[in-house]
């Protein structure tokens, strides 16, 4: 309980101290979450397509993060690693 109060106090204090830079911060977080969500959706579509041919592509947070960070080459590398293993 005390830990939660301390964390909430620190978050509110940081809002007060850095209120001018928060719109850029939230824009960056929203872009990151959009890329992560879209990459997981793309991996799931590839999983469905290749699953019908007998290949299992893992769809989890790690593969989604790799695909979000690297883009299309990340999706291709996840597919290649999954097929080779």
Summarize the structure.
With 85 residues, the protein is mainly α. It is built from four helices and no strands.
Q: What fraction strand? A: under 5%
Largest sheet report: none
Distance between the termini: 45 Å
Helix content: over 70%
Q: What is the total tally of β strands?
A: 0
Taking all Cα atoms into account, the compactness measure Rg is 19 Å
Number of helices: 4
In terms of per-residue confidence, which ranges show pLDDT below 50 for 5 or more consecutive residues? none
Mean pLDDT across every amino acid position: 84
Structural category is: mainly alpha
Reading the helices and strands in chain order gives HHHH
Which helices and strands occur, and which strands form pairs?
Elements: H1 2-17, H2 22-51, H3 61-70, H4 72-84
Keywords:
85 residues, elongated
Report on the structure:
The structure is a single chain. The chain is mainly α and 85 residues long. 81% of the residues lie in helices and 0% in strands. It has helices at 2-17, 22-51, 61-70, 72-84. Helix 2 (22-51) crosses helix 3 and helix 3 packs across helix 4. The longest helix is centred in the middle third of the chain and has 30 residues, at 22-51.
């Amino acid at each position: 309980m005390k830990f939660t109060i301390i964390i909430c106090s620190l978050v509110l204090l940081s809002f007060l101290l850095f209120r001018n830079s928060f719109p850029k911060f939230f824009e960056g977080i929203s872009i990151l979450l959009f890329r992560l969500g879209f990459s997981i959706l793309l991996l799931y579509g590839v999983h469905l397509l290749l699953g019908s041919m007998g290949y299992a592509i893992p769809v989890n947070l790690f593969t989604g993060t790799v695909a979000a960070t690297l883009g299309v080459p990340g999706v291709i590398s996840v597919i290649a690693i999954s097929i080779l293993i």
